[in-house]
What we know:
The mean pLDDT is 97. The chain has helices at 22-44, 54-58, 66-87, 99-109, 112-125, 172-175, 179-186, 192-203, and strands spanning 130-136, 142-148, 159-165. By secondary structure, the chain is mainly alpha-helical.
Amino acid sequence: MATHTLPPLPYDYNALEPWIDEQTMRLHHDKHHQTYCDNFVKAVTGTPFEAQDVNATLAQLDKVPENIRGAVRNHGGGFANHILFWEIMGPKAGGTPTGPLAEAISKAFGSFDAFREKFVAAAMGQFGSGWAWLVVKADGELAVYNLPNQDSPVSKGDTPILTLDVWEHAYYLKYQNRRAEYVGNFWNVVNWNKVAELYGKAKK
Ligand code: MN
């Protein structure tokens, strides 16, 4: 029973050009993301976590049996993190947020530019593989940090609303070692409408 399946990319593979290239998107979604999905399914098949939403499982990693906990953390994390990543990007995107999200960002970080600096620092400061995150904490406050590998903010009790994959597989074909250029161009593809929607849900 394939409870967990890889959702199709919510736009064309070339939709994020020129900032993120088609070849990277094909490999990233069809190969890397698919593999996380497959390995997560393998780990949870025959367990009570087989039919449970992946984020619900990541939120209770301590309840996952030790023999599959590592696989769930890594592959379940990879499965869930990439679904969010595709959703918070899009074609004809970028710019700045508006509404309650914009107000919350200004309140938490001082200004949008200050927020962006902090997020970039998190993305650049992640040594090796990992992700930069903007999350809503349990108390409703916003926070920015990085996490290694495929670790999810959900496992810390936070709700992620914006994220950037800084594994080399996310940018190496186009940017090689130039992570800063990739991180800088990310802002051209952020779908702030989606981030605002996730913020609204997290605040409820
Ligand atoms: Mn990735």
